[in-house]
Amino acid sequence: MKTLLAIFLLAGSVLAQDGYIADKSRAEITNATAACGPEETHFDLKTSDASHSIAQPESGKALFYVIGYDGNQNILCKGCAIVARVGLDGAWIGAVNGNSFLSSSVAPGEHHLCTQWQSRLSSRSKYLALNSFIAEVGKTYYFRMRLIVQGQQGPPFLDLEQINSDQGKYMVLTSRTSESHPKK
What we know:
This protein is α+β, with helices and mostly antiparallel strands.
């Protein structure tokens, strides 16, 4: 009987620890994704071939671009580009798709970016990517967002990486302008 009681108490403490770990993990995930906006916000997106050039940062601010890149790797959605919401410091600021971009001015300091696949399918909506940067007055930053497919076996993942200014300028100049608005 004592052995059974000891097993029961040990099992209870292990389950309590598992619950703590699960709760801690959920809290850590929430903190890690704080750059994203509210789940219920979705965007209508159109792109434009209108002529554009590389903008200069506003006085006293920095500028950043998020450039969607398809690269014909999108085997999950042949013939289409994913739409990804773009978040900055906890609020959605717009959306991009493959071969389109958006830009925004930011105050100097640390900023956190999020991109998340906007889909009606929950299995695809779980794909998100995060990055951060420290903005300096007068500087421009470029980030490439892309879906990476790891062959036939591995699951795809969304990637958001800061790229150098030469590559960034080229990608902006050869991409379409994203025009997105929150759905009503």
